[in-house]
Amino acid sequence: MRTAKVAQPWAVIAAVVVAVAACSNSSSPAAASAAASAPAVSTQPSAPAEKVTVNFPYLWSGPEGDALEKVIASFNSSQTAITVKGVSSPDFQKQLASMSGSNGFDISDNFGSTVGSWASKGILEPLDDYAKADGTDMSDFVPTALQSNQYQGKTYALPIAVHTLLLMYNKKMFADAGISGPPTTMTDLQADIAKLTKADASGNITQFGMRSPDYITLAYAFGGKWYDDQGNATPDDPGNLAALHFWVDNVVKKYGADAIKKFESGYGEYASAQNPFYTGKVAMTLDGEWQPVFIKQYAPSLDWGVVAIPYPDGQQSLAGATQLTSSMFFIPKNAPHKQEAWTFLKYLTGTDAMKQFSRALGNLPARTSLLGDPVYNDLPQFNVWLDSLKSPNLRIFASLPSTAQYQKDLSDEFQLVANLTDTPEAGMAKVKANASGYSQ
Amino acid sequence: MHRSVLRGLLFASPWIVGFVIFQLVPIAASAYFSLTNFNLFQDPQFVGLRNYQRLAADALFWKSLLNTLYLTVIGVPVSLTAALAAALALNMRVRGQSLFRLFVFLPTVVPVVAATYIWRWLLNAQYGYVNGALGAVGLGQPLWLDDPFWTKPALILMSLWVTGSAMVVFLAALQDVPETYYEAAVIDGAGPWAKFRHVTLPLISPVILFETIIAGIFTLQYFTQAFLLGQTRLNAASGGPENSLLVYGLYLFQQAFVNLNMGYASAMAWVLLFVALAGTWLLLRVSRDRVFYAGD
Fold it and tell me: Three-state SS across A399-420?
């Protein structure tokens, strides 16, 4: 009797443990698919096969997200076995965090510059075998965009669009300031910023000649480079320092770091009618090819123009320099439905969907065959961005294992430089010292 | 084993199973991972104490530790003083006492995310009400959320708004102080300050110590408000202006889920545990002769 009584509790514990194990098992995909392929299920009279749901969180939001939903809807209506469920999730950190969980999404988007660091960590599913299996032709993709989605000879993502930043300016503000046309050299730009910046008696900026630029792009305009040909970080390249000095010496020191920060704290949301370029708070901005569509949506009466980024005086060979970035789709390694995600990815980056999507967002398409397509003709001044792709000075930030960390270090240091805490030389030297430890 | 021990274990087993699965195993795993390079996707590589050595040489690690210690060493005393002051005021017998208590407690029930967004707007350098009010009385208008010097005072200012829970505990402690002590003190000629200093403070000192330790440990894990105030477009990893909002928890999160350095992040978690232990030990040690336990 005694042994029986003692045994009872253990039986209960064992039962609990088994129950817990059973619960956690049935929720894992492996167990679920094992159950689905069990004979007992397969002998059932043929019920209509359940559609596979492909989860697709994307970083776009607002009208851009709506445009993507239309592409998703037309894909879904063409499918009998796959349903794509899109959800707007404009959050880089959330995207990464959910890829590190066990129950991730199937497909998402990011920029080509992330591919190197993610692929080297094993986060991304290589796509070459899928492409080979169904004979997908990759030769139509814009070569630089495709390259930035490759790492060590393998393709980890496919581009949907490419982007360049150019100098946009407010024509009315230029006319009010008595400036006849947009700047072509950096000296022009400097003079125009001075003419277009206004401050009140106590030093508060009331109108800013130019929104603080993307320093990485500005550096390309000064002939700078961020990596050498061996893939070593070169933050202290003379061109990079010249770009930082241009901004710090001509703008920050002139108007004051605090005054600029205070003015910038009053900027409205970027993707809204309160964007400071739309409201006339800033007269110039380095911005991308999606702006014609944005302006139609948020500031239809804005009188604006766009030109290539000015070049340093006497260095006309640098004219047309800018940064090319690419938007891409990828399948994470832990995606539950990789094959179905590939089917959708292939559709998205195919000619028809890419045309529909890039026209709706006003993005530059990532296929060479679409670059001259008349579908973009009604987008005002879009041709200036299309032309920018032909520039011999088009630069791309290499997609290496260290890229994500390098860009984070740079953006941290740009703040210190723009706040006059560090000189450009000291700041970039710090980044260079950090970069020597990127190794991996 | 004795039968009663087994029965006891049986009754405790729901907790034991949960503790082992959800706490003991993860804690042990993080101790192991802290000795590895691990990015969640590839197998961990054992590197010994290298993560801890790298921490010592990591400028952002020290920056984040100092940011958190700033909030702990300055923020906790400030907010507890405010809570105690509020409790003292609300302990006075005046008409509408419970209404005043409600008003002080009310902000505490606002969800922290919503509260932080409200404050982000209130503290806007150009359009915020805080600077509007400061300007109206001729005071300086700091760039609360844009100047690295002011971001942490801004966080502390925000914490003053939600002192309700500490206030309630203090209030309960104040009401436990026997009225007779005050009567005796008055007979001895004590004024309001002397009553507070020699009667109230010693009698509620265990509660103050308890609140300090809890708030200290809580603040060492500070995360949400700094994360939200540092947010940029598309929520890329950010530490606020010049990383002045990069508190320890935020840096740990970025290492773990942005840079995918799980090993490094685990090492950071263990360092924080020892910081918390050391801080608690120090507090208990320093307070030993200053805290008065009525039951002793």
Answer: CCCCHHHHHHHHHHHHHHHHCC
Q: How far apart are CA A209 and CA A169, in angstroms?
A: 9
Query: So what's the ipTM on this one?
Result: 0.83
Q: Residue A285 has which token pair?
A: 């901005």
Sequence-distant (≥ 6) Cβ neighbours of residue B8 within 8 angstroms? none
Residue B2, helix vs strand vs coil = coil
Q: What size, in residues, is chain B?
A: 296
Classified by CATH at the fold level, domain A166-323+398-435 comes out as D-Maltodextrin-Binding Protein; domain 2 (3.40.190)
3-class SS of residue B92? coil
Structure tokens, A214: 């993307």
Report the amino acid identity of residue B174. L
pTM attached to this predicted model: 0.85
Partner-chain contact A121 B147, CB within 8 Å: no
Distance from CA of A268 to the nearest CA of B (A): 11
Q: How, if at all, do strands B45-46 and A394-396 pair?
A: unpaired
- Residue type, position A282, single letter: V
**Residue B108: which domain range?**
56-287
In this complex, which of A93, A258, A412 lies closest to B243 when CB atoms are compared? Answer: A412
Question: Distance (Å, rounded) from C-alpha A435 to C-alpha B12?
Answer: 53
> Which of A107 and B295 is assigned the larger pLDDT?
A107
CATH of residue B233's domain is 1.10.3720.10
Q: Look over chain A and give the mean of its residue pLDDT values, rounded to a whole number.
A: 88
Chain B CB contacts of A279 under 8 Å are none
Q: Is residue B237 within 8 Å of residue B254, measured between CB atoms?
A: yes
Q: Give the residue ranges of DSSP H helices in A266-402.
A: 291-298, 338-348, 351-361, 382-388
Residue A440 scores a pLDDT above 50: no
